[in-house]
Amino acid sequence: MNRKQIKQNAKEALRFRYWPIIGIELIAGALMGGAGGFSGGAGGNSINFKETANDPETAKVFAGILAVIAGVTLIASIVGLLYSFLFGNAIKVGISGIRLRAYRKEPFRVVDLFSGLKPYKKNIGTMALQTLFILLGFMCFFVPGIIVALGLYEVPYMLAENRELSGMEAIRKSWENMKGHKGELFVLELSFIGWILLTILTCGVLAIFYTGPYMALAEAGFYREMHPVEAQEPAPEA
Fold this sequence. Notes:
The chain has one domain (3-226). The protein is mainly alpha-helical and 238 residues long. It has helices at residues 3-16, 18-33, 49-54, 56-103, 120-140, 142-151, 155-161, 167-177, 182-190, 193-201, 205-226. It starts with a helix and ends in a 12-residue tail after the last helix.
């Protein structure tokens, strides 16, 4: 696998249709984000916990506020998880298909983001299984988690390209296809460490306008180079 060529192709694909790719990535990110958690701070006001403990009425009010915050946080977390499972997973499949087309400079549309909604149950179930397997891997230890993540890397791309493929077939084929290629993908990811450091220095701004889309296209390119297809004629630039 020619890592340098994949990265070069990803750069050219990003330049070829820069703003549409940035836009579709932003939309996908917003749709996959779901319900966020709630956080708060005391700001400039401090609480004297000693006085609170000595005042029963204040303690009750304080305990009630904490209970409300905890309840809202729990509900938001549950809603976020449900959103990610019921909708976000389908968008992951849709954006994976778009990235594959963008890498080959093929046309794509915003509506393609929702292509993962069909077949709905298979796609969200398979993506949930992929996440579960990766989490179980990380529960064993950091290295097994990385190995599982690399082994199941192809799943969303397979779902995006082959609707006839069952969920378990996608998981099994991804694991089989990645035998002997996990190290190559890992090295590809590590090669972006410089860009990631620059992204941190820009407080994440670079991730929106370059690093994120560039890495996403390179990852899609890795899959495309492993599973080449006949390219379509690229649409002319607007």
